[in-house]
Amino acid sequence: MLTVSQAINLILSETHAGLNESVSVGAALNRVLSSPVLTPHDSPLFDKSLMDGFAVNSASLLTAQVSDGTISGERTLGDSVSLNVCETLTAGTHSEKWLSEGQAVRVMTGTAIPPGADCVVPFEQVTVFPIEREVDQIDREVVSIPRRAISKGNCVLRRGQSARSGDVLLTAGVRLYAQHLAALAEFGIPEIQARRLPRCAVLATGDELVEYTQNPGPGRIRNSNEPMLLGQLRQNYAEPLGLGIARDDHDVLRSGIQQGLKCDFLILTGGVSVGIRDLVPAELNAAGVRKVFHGVHMKPGKPLWFGVYEKGDHRCCVFGLPGNPVSALACFELFVRPALRKFSGICNPDPLPMKAILMEPYQVRGDRPVYHPVKIEAGDQGLTVRPLRWIGSADLRATVDANGMALFEPCGSPIATGTCVSVWLWAGLNE
Ligand code: AMP
Ligand code: MG
Q: CB of 268 closer than 6 A to ligand 1?
């Protein structure tokens, strides 16, 4: 029987990336770029002030003669220079006037600094003296700036310092989060090329199933796998399509499968084990789905079935997940998720699992690696993990308190507290 990593490798080698489409920035959240995005211009586009303060020319102030106590006609006061405030500029305005010696311009954060200025000294570091208005003269202000606060480039973001025109802003294979949308907007890029979202059908099989809105009669149960899998698909940015329940009957199964094969992925649950009504593998075979493997050495999830359907250009990857709810959940996270990521064009579809410190000893029973529902927490020591009370693959209740699963390999003796183990998150941390 295949190991988990062998099975994942087979799945990834059979899954192709989806086609490209244009997506507007407004709709691009969580989409994966299929081609890189280059910056069409410098950022910032002008030398801008990073603070509310006074823009000055550092070179003239630092090299000016001070022996006679004046710089260009302005008085020097000890370690400070006094300059005429010649203009006030706010963000969004700009001035063409060249800064003359002995002058300072009051600028606000984000303002294009005037030509000739190369340094901004924040308001907090200066003293402003109003000069009384004399007859027929306009109001004048003088600003006293400590010499040590003046240095070339201080509080100025130069044109192109953040990004140069033609730089790679975003590489292909990146999933777009909020900050990426801001970067696209900053550069005026209205749309991007992204992989198509995977369309995924879910078909629950089993004579015992009723819709979850109904009362199960004697011996019957509600279909809990469908809402779970549709939710997992949405969490992974796929387009889900619920196909409802198929009875364990050749004709009913066949028509459900035919419908599902029109999607990029078909996910069935139930009917893949060795029971006398487990008809799914035979029906998939009859529908022309090529089996890639059946069975993985793990617990839960051993009966997992995977195959591929191809017709012309169309391709559908088919997962037959075991019917037991915890098996279906774990198999989705381990096997379906990397396939969805590959289809979406993510560079690294199956990243290494996170590591967490085991907070109590764990004894593996049996010879298969166990994927056990756990509570993973982030704290002072990093990630910690506590196995939850769990009776087995039918025990969905245990997963309600879990936010992930941990892998425990069989090794004869108990796995000690403090051991670093691999974990997969199904839900948020510390939520
Ligand atoms: P199967 O894989 O068909 O042998 O089913 C294994 C177990 O999972 C049985 O106890 C089924 O009743 C249960 N089961 C199968 N499908 C579902 C489903 N959609 N929702 C909840 N439980 C299920
Ligand atoms: Mg069944």
A: no
What CATH number does the domain located at 21-41+165-195 have?
Answer: 3.90.105.10
Rounded CA separation 44/58 (Å): 21
Q: Which fold does the domain 48-157 belong to in CATH?
A: Molybdopterin biosynthesis moeA protein; domain 3 (2.170.190)
pTM of this structure = 0.92
Choose among 322, 228, 308, 331: nearest CA to 269.
322
pLDDT tens by residue, 5-14: 999 999 999 9
Pick among 3.40.980.10, 3.30.830.10, 3.90.180.10, 3.60.110.10: CATH of 4-19+197-344: 3.40.980.10
**If you ran DSSP here, which 8-state letter would residue 419 be given?**
-
204 lines ligand 1 (CB under 6 A): yes
Cα(394) to centroid(ligand 1), Å: 8
Query: How many CA atoms lie less than 13 Å away from 388 in the CB half-sphere?
Result: 18
Give the span between the Cα atoms of 104 and 88, in whole angstroms. 9
pLDDT tens-digit map of 147-172 = 999 999 999 999 999 999 999 999 99
Tokens representing 121? 């000294």
| Ion ligand 2: residue ranges with CB closer than 5 A | 206, 270-271, 323
